[in-house]
Amino acid sequence: MSEVAKLDRQDIIGIVTIDSPPVNALSAAVRGGILDNVKAAIDDPAIKAIVLTCGGRTFIAGADITEFGKPPKLPALNDVLSTIENSPKPVIAAIHGTALGGGLEVALACHYRVATKDSKLGLPEVKLGLLPGAGGTQRLPRAVGPELAVKMIVGGDPISAAEAHKAGLIEEIVEGPASGGVEFARKVVAENRPLRKLRDDDSKIAAAKADRSIFTNAVAAITKKSRGLEAPFAAADAVGYAIDLPFDEGLKREREGFLKLLTSDQSKAQRYAFFAEREAAKIAGVPEGTKGRKVERVAIIGAGTMGGGIAMSFANAGIPVTLIETAEEQLKRGMGIMQKNWEATAARGGIPADAPAKRMALIDGKVGLENVKDADLVIEAVFETMAVKKEVFGKLDQYAKPGAVLASNTSYLNIDAIAAETSRPQDVLGMHFFSPANVMKLCEIVRADKTAPDALVTAVSIARKIAKVPAVVGVCDGFVGNRMLAQRGKQAEKLLFEGALPQQVDAVVTKFGMPMGPFAMGDLAGLDIGWRSRKDRGIKSEIADALCEAGRFGQKTGKGYYKYESGSRAPLPDPDVEKLIDETLAKLGLKRRNVSDEEILERMMYPMINEGAKILAEGIAARPSDIDVVWLYGYGWPIYRGGPMYWADSVGLKHIAERLSYYAKETNDPSLEPAPLLKKLAEEGKTFASLAQGKAA
Ligand code: NAD
User: Fold this and answer.
1) Looking at the predicted structure, is the pLDDT value of residue 637 above 60?
2) Which residues are catalytic?
3) In order of start, what are the domains of the chain with their CATH numbers?
4) β-pair partners for 5
5) pTM for this one?
6) For a pocket test of ligand 1, which of 331, 333, 335, 382 has the largest count of ligand atoms closer than 8 A to its C-beta?
7) I need a surface site. Which of 9, 233, 399, 648 has the fewest CB within 10 A?
8) Is the pLDDT assigned to residue 261 strictly greater than 50?
9) What band does 69 get if pLDDT is binned at 50, 70 and 90?
10) pLDDT class for 695, splitting at 50, 70, 90?
11) What is the average pLDDT value for the chain, to the nearest integer?
């Protein structure tokens, strides 16, 4: 018998326990273990019912994704499931922890399901660009009806045990998985309940068979945000087979859909992103076993746009915050915005009705920096001026308790210089959140020259605790994300001088899959910020300057590169802007030319890749995948393109280097010349990924 599963007997009940730490993933060994032990239980005349349960912290949490892309190993999951489903004795899945993906598909093949109350059940395959490939799309609609099935399969979010109970996915909520499963199994035997095979039960899909709009409306609602993605639509099609086709035919079509996605570029990119995110949590160059410091209370300095959002992220995770401002008025304003924000979420049903009050109670508003004294971690989010930051850190040095980690949320400034204002630079680092900070998942953790390893570990683990995705980066102007973005911004602006219009540039970028183009983004952030900074530095940018001189500061004034109808954030192309560009070019003696979409895409993306290569060569990012994580979670890079460095590998570095050289000459811009690392990889026919593997790709 297999080591990862065993069969125990409690008189008439056979208990098959899977024990394959850490999460009982459905490896070939686990599949084999289930099959052997279920068969043995079926063959044992003393056994009248079979409970399938797991040891450790969870039920089967999903497929073994390390098997993806390798030759399939037997037994196939579908064969295991049909053995369970066709068992002449009732099989009861007893769930605790998370029954996800293949794990839930196993449970769905059982005749009954029970779960502990903290369990989560879901089919998240779509998040890896896949669809459930072992009957999930056929059995779940039969268990819960097509609407909830679409939500779970096409949306990919799990549901709680309580929801599962309400929807009929589980029969009972139990105390302990094995004991509850056994108790339920005895009931099934005592009451002589029939074997409930979902495959044969069309009762919950009958309504959608009669009126298909029940299904199509559910799909339309859930795929609203799936622009560019293949998997949600393929997954929806598969749920449709459950409604339209006999079970076995549906199962076959589901499998075909799964296999097609498995080899698709999108799914490969999405699975890469999954691993990249996990990899990013491993900090390069920190001694193994380095433990983080304890963080029980956080102080946040500044209750503005960022401070407020950061405070919300901590309170959302149940961590108490001291929020510090310079005066009562600013404090009140900041607290008011947070409260409104939570109330709006509660009104939409996103959080329980009592959550806003509970979360507000975790935030202690205070005036004066001396109030940082109880905090284990301090995050500064005051104005982006070196003098102000230096003053704040000087005071933090005075008031913060020994060993507190002192972080700055600066977007661009030099953390080494900020750390030098303190007598404890080993405790200082950057925690660069993205706006809106309560929503955006990225946190660039900036390692300064003197940052201690345990301070770094503390920042990474607290970021994860508040559901952010940390990526460790080094000190430089703009760190990884904004530094690369600046290259795109520079080209976007140049393109206007050559003949492109803001809406043309933005359309190319959004068609690629980014949520917003550079000009719409500028309008959102406010054009006056850059204008003021250019004036301070004595720099000109004639088109952007002319817009600001005309009072067009972006969304806040209803006009910028676009115009905005009152109350709307939708950018509308504005003939006045085209006129203003024409006039500016005429003044400069420049002529507009036709700029192709292809050129726009190349000039938006390749200079960023080039900067990424420099970032890698300088060691600002340890791995190409860390750069990808920054773009995926901080800037909305389309997950089905994996991230800029992953995408660059797929385009081919030789091509990118050649095009950069071409544009360097054509537009007389030496900064576009390929970086030495890019050039070297291109010449050697290698990829960025080859750097991560430390060998040629
Ligand atoms: P903001 O102007 O909205 O907020 C700054 C707040 O800090 C103000 O409420 C101000 O009263 C307060 N403050 C100033 N000095 C203080 C002091 N000595 N003690 C206590 N409070 C003080 O600015 P923001 O947009 O939240 O930016 C804050 C920081 O975050 C900046 O460093 C910025 O570069 C960075 N950042 C901003 C964004 C963004 O998109 N807004 C994104 C990432 C990082």
Assistant:
1) yes
2) 105, 125
3) 5-263 (3.90.226.10), 298-477 (3.40.50.720), 500-507+514-587 (1.10.1040.50), 597-692 (1.10.1040.10)
4) 18
5) 0.93
6) 382
7) 9
8) yes
9) confident
10) very low
11) 96
Q: Does residue 472 contact residue 626 with C-beta atoms inside 8 Å? A: yes
Ligand 1: residue whose CA is nearest its atom 39: 435
Q: How far apart are CA 306 and CA 326, in angstroms?
A: 15
Dist CA 339 CA 362 (whole Å): 12
- Predicted local distance difference test score (pLDDT) of residue 2: 53
Query: Cα(358) to centroid of ligand 1, in Å?
Result: 25
Q: How far is the CA of 303 from the centre of ligand 1 (A)?
A: 7
Pocket test for ligand 1, best of 300, 301, 305 (most atoms within 8 A of CB): 305
Distance CA 61, CA 695 (A): 33
Pocket mutation for ligand 1, best pick of 300, 301, 306, 391 (most atoms within 8 Å of C-beta): 306
Helices assigned H by DSSP within 550-643:
575-588, 597-617, 624-634
Query: Which atom of ligand 1 has the smallest separation from the CA of 435?
Result: 40
Which residue has a Cα nearest atom 35 of ligand 1? 410
317 within 8 A of 295, measured Cβ to Cβ: no
**In the beta sheet, which residues pair with residue 94?**
114
Give the model's confidence band at 3: pLDDT under 50 very low, under 70 low, under 90 confident, else very high: confident
Q: Ligand 1 — pocket residues by CB below 6 A?
A: 301-307, 324-326, 330, 369, 381-384, 388, 392, 409-411, 433-435
CA 74 – CA 133 distance, rounded (Å): 15
For 111, the token pair is: 């005749």
Choose among 41, 61, 63, 40: nearest CA to 51.
41
Query: Is residue 692 very low, low, confident or very high in pLDDT (cuts 50, 70, 90)?
Result: confident
Q: Which residues contact 589 (CB under 8 A, 6 or more apart)?
A: none
Question: Which run of H or E residues covers position 367?
Answer: strand 363-367
CA of 554 to the centre of ligand 1 (A): 20
Question: How does pLDDT run across 486-495, given as a tens digit for each residue?
Answer: 999 999 999 9
Q: What percent of the chain has pLDDT over 70?
A: 99
Token pair listed for 506: 């933005």
CA–centroid distance, 337 to ligand 1, in Å, is: 15
Question: Of ligand 1's atoms, which has the minimum distance to the CA of residue 324?
Answer: 20
- Ligand 1 centroid – CA 383 distance (Å): 4
Please say if the pLDDT value at position 309 is more than 60.
yes
pLDDT of residue 1: 46
- Residue closest via CA to ligand 1's atom 31 equals 384
